[in-house]
Automatic annotation (TrEMBL):
The lineage of its organism: Bacteria, Pseudomonadati, Pseudomonadota, Gammaproteobacteria, Enterobacterales. Keywords: Aminotransferase, Pyruvate, Transferase. This is Valine-pyruvate aminotransferase. GO terms for molecular function: transaminase activity.
Length: 41
């Protein structure tokens, strides 16, 4: 079996649900930080 490689933005394998969860959590933190830096109120 070949090693899973990321080609551009397309992934040819199904990633680990745990990795997805971790990625989403990191992404959420980045978004929250950006919102806080904007300070719309």
């Amino acid at each position: 079996m070949a090693t899973p490689r990321i080609n551009g933005m397309r992934m040819n394998y199904v990633p680990d649900p745990e990795k997805i969860e971790a990625g989403v959590r990191i992404l959420a933190e980045e978004v929250e930080r950006a919102w806080r830096e904007q300070d719309p109120s």
